[in-house]
Write a structure and sequence with these properties.
By secondary structure, the chain is an alpha+beta fold. The protein contains two helices and five strands; from the N terminus they run αβββββα. A five-stranded antiparallel β-sheet has the order 4-3-2-1-5. It is elongated.
């Protein structure tokens, strides 16, 4: 049923790898994927090795770029939903997605530092 709603020209929100985007359906691919032309970035892709999350010491630390403005990507249909509402400017949405990703990473650093503090306290109690 969702496929019938995903006709060319429909604005959608879709996930591609680890990023989320707003775009326009260009076509339904014969492979079953949905070709989406990117209009805005909702969530910037995650950096690093997805098979070893949160590990900075992997052999290859992946750098993932956001999909470019008007780039067409084949999205898995289960990640594509109609988008209702305004579509932000691509450059501004990319900037905002970077800010949000940085803030989340800063929170993760603060969480890790707090965990280390608590483990230090516990170590003192265990001794």
């Amino acid at each position: 049923m969702l496929e019938s709603m995903l006709t060319p020209g429909t604005m959608v929100r879709a996930s591609y790898k680890t990023g989320d985007y707003i775009g326009e359906v260009v076509e339904l691919s014969p492979t079953g994927k949905v070709a989406v032309k990117i209009a805005a970035v909702v969530k910037h892709p995650t950096q690093g090795d997805l098979h070893n999350p949160m590990d900075p010491d992997v052999a290859f630390f992946h750098q993932r770029r956001a999909l470019a403005y008007q780039e067409i990507a084949l999205m898995p249909p289960n990640t594509v939903r109609p988008h209702h509402g305004t579509v932000p400017d691509y450059r501004e949405s990319l900037r905002q997605a970077l800010v949000q990703e940085r803030e989340q990473l800063k929170r993760t650093v603060r969480w890790a530092e707090r965990c280390l503090e608590e483990l230090d306290r516990l170590e003192g109690e265990y001794a």
